[in-house]
Amino acid sequence: MSGIRERRWHPLLQQWVVVAAASASRPWSGTVLDTDANTGQLHDPACYLCPRVERANGEHNSDYTGCWAFDNDFPSLAGIPDTATTNTESGKSKSTQDSPLRRQRHATGICRVLVWSERHNATLATLSAAEMRKVVSLWRSEYHTLSQLPDIDNVLIFENKGKETGVSNLHPHGQVYATGFITDTAHRLRESQWQYAQQHQQELLQTLIQRPEYNNDLLVEKGDAFMTIVPYFARFAYETWIVPTRHISSIDQFTDSELDELAVLYQRQAQRYDLLFQRPSPNITLLNNTPCDEHVANRHWCFYIGMQPPLRAADKLKYLAGFESGSNNIVNPVQPELAAEALRHCTEGLNKKP
């Protein structure tokens, strides 16, 4: 089984994933990461996200504690549309009456920074339970507020953790991109869940996690309201999803008790990665909430959290090089069932934590 080579269908992205577990044992002479843990310091006066520090735009951070959020000083998006620059009939840029080979739109939206803690050396894995619950509350409030804005169609909350993800600041934080358009991935996720519901009269993700493999080989942890799983079609070596057991479209629809459990399961999974790799693990977290336009297919969208460590081993990154960049078919070097087994074994270490 460890030498498996096969294609597995990703039903949400509608694409094949190649599972090539034998490739993990290839001789390696490429880049090897420095795995020494760097705990850093509680406060870094050179960090633009620490309390009381002057940011690059000249503003001073407040003397905050806990969570803190603000508009990104260097946003990738152009803000809420200005009616003076749009076509009043279509809401589209006047410059879009061009050839289909040269189209453009304003990159509209809002970029926000979400800080998890005032402590420069904290991570979501090391916060107290109460602090982690406040982070989940911040996720909910940011989604709820931004999704209500009339010019916002999609709200993606995410975290790039660790220098291996290319993050520009190691202070514990995430971001929000609230866009005036539906992102490509959100479009794919919505279409696949809509089509499945039309064909089977069932919701895709809730049907998926009822399959026997997700209660056995691919299960990492199961709570009352959520399951932590490794997808059968995982694109990254130790990718996990946290999926609600009942159909819910967005984080602002959960009960308080469900949010309590979500905070616990998320933090436990972040801690498993640290135990698995024996270091503060880099990770990309994606909160997949339903788009907030009025599309009829939104009612079949199911919220889930995707966690994607960019590591194939403690000291090796998973690169998306020639074949994957050219084909858009990801090669996973670790069989998902074996990844789930390795993560389950880390649970004993969690139970020993104070």
Topology:
Blueprint lengths: L4 E6 L4 E6 L47 E4 L37 E7 L13 H19 L6 E8 L11 E7 L4 H17 L3 H5 L10 E4 L3 E4 L10 E5 L11 H22 L5 E6 L15 E5 L2 E3 L2 E2 L4 H6 L3 E2 L3 H10 L1 H5 L3
Parallel strand pairs: 2-14
Antiparallel strand pairs: 1-2, 3-4, 4-6, 5-6, 5-10, 7-8, 8-9, 9-11, 10-11, 12-13
Helix pairs in contact: 1-4
Q: Enumerate the strands of the largest sheet in spatial order, edge to edge or round the barrel.
A: 3-4-6-5-10-11-9-8-7
Shape: globular
Q: How far is the N terminus from the C terminus?
A: 37 Å
CATH class: Alpha Beta
Helix content: 10-25%
Q: Strand fraction band? A: 15-25%
How many separate structural domains?
1
**CATH topological fold name:** HIT family, subunit A
The biggest beta sheet reads:
9 strands, antiparallel
How large is the radius of gyration? 21 Å
SSE pattern, N- to C-terminal: EEEEHEEHHEEEHEEEEHEHH
Please state the second-level CATH architecture. 2-Layer Sandwich
- Low-pLDDT segments: 84-94
Can you tell me the CATH superfamily? HIT-like
- Structural class given helices, strands, pairing? alpha+beta
What's this entry about, in short?
With about 350 residues, the chain is of the alpha+beta class.
Descriptive overview:
- There is one protein chain.
- The protein has 354 residues and is α+β, with helices and mostly antiparallel strands.
- The protein has one domain: 2-Layer Sandwich (HIT family, subunit A), CATH 3.30.428.
- Helices cover 24% and strands 19% of the residues.
- It has helices at 129-147, 184-200, 204-208, 256-277, 322-327, 336-345, 347-351, and strands at residues 5-10, 15-20, 68-71, 109-115, 154-161, 173-179, 219-222, 226-229, 240-244, 283-288, 304-308, 311-313, 316-317, 331-332.
- The strands form three sheets. It has a nine-stranded antiparallel sheet. A three-stranded mixed sheet has the order 1-2-14, with no helix packed on it. The protein has a two-stranded antiparallel sheet with strand order 12-13.
- The longest helix is centred in the last third of the chain and has 22 residues, at 256-277.
- It is globular, with a radius of gyration of 21 Å.
- The two termini are 37 Å apart.
